[in-house]
Amino acid sequence: MDPEVAAALDRAARTALAHADRLAAVPPGAWPDGGLLPVSGASGRAAALQMRVSQVDAPTDLGYQRYVPSLSVVLVGRKRSIVGDDDQEWGREHFLITPVDLPVVAGVTEVEDRGFVAVVWRLDPVVVGEVVASMSRSAAPLVEPPRLGTWTPALADAFARLVGLLDTPEDVPVLFPLVSREVVLRLLQTEQAPRILAAHDNESVVAKATALLIDRLDEPWSMDRLASTLLTSASTLFTRFKQTTGMSPAQYLKRARLGEARRRMVVLGETAARAATAVGYRSASHFSRDYREAYGRPPAEDAAGAREAFAAVG
């Protein structure tokens, strides 16, 4: 790792450790990461920065996470993230951008003496739009960037200063708008720029598509119907969707349905049949097959085990 990047991330880690929400137990099916940004329950300082700082003491099982548009950073330890067909283990050498709502399966794989420490910072679409509009850029080919981003010294320094505002809340009103825009600018100067730009081009057709699928999970979507609803072509939607999320719309819908079904079974106590129907599955055998492929166990068995594990910890 570049020495400048390492030094900046070391600074960020020291600050994050002082302000982390310590998570003794992780509710199965509801990993408190990208899907639970600081609307409530997070510390006031982190909430003011649209940030969640979490510390976990031990490795965790894989669990469903629904990430809102965000920048996710591991500062201490390592985690595994499965986005569509992309399955990777990563630590502070990379970062993860989710420019639209994204269903992810993830878990902590390695902890250090300080545990596992991660920061999730919400990407404000207004700020991203302002920065994109102010940049001069030529048309770029629609290429799918790597799922994980690689730090540049400028990005790592800006991110460390963003996290550093946790120590100086009196500076937040003045510096946060400036530093947040700099972080977005530096992100747009990395190989992740096509993913961010795709989410904001054509009036955010990808963001509209993901919102529509999430809001209406139980409906029988096809590629043509989705494109027609959004008043775009199927080929354009498919290309931009794949570039932005790393998945096809069909893969995205499947992952979102399975994650919501697991949440319903584990958190709400619904039966597998009821949860499957609620998210749009018409065949119990189809649901069971997809679920086992995603989570390694049949639905009812997995949900019961997750509830027991969480009850034992609590």
Automatic annotation (TrEMBL):
The keyword Ribonucleoprotein does not apply. InterPro entries: Homeodomain-like_sf, HTH_AraC, Tscrpt_reg_HTH_AraC_N. Transmembrane segments: none annotated. Residues 207-305 form the HTH araC/xylS-type domain. The keyword Transcription regulation applies. Keywords: Transcription, Transcription regulation. This is AraC-like DNA-binding protein.
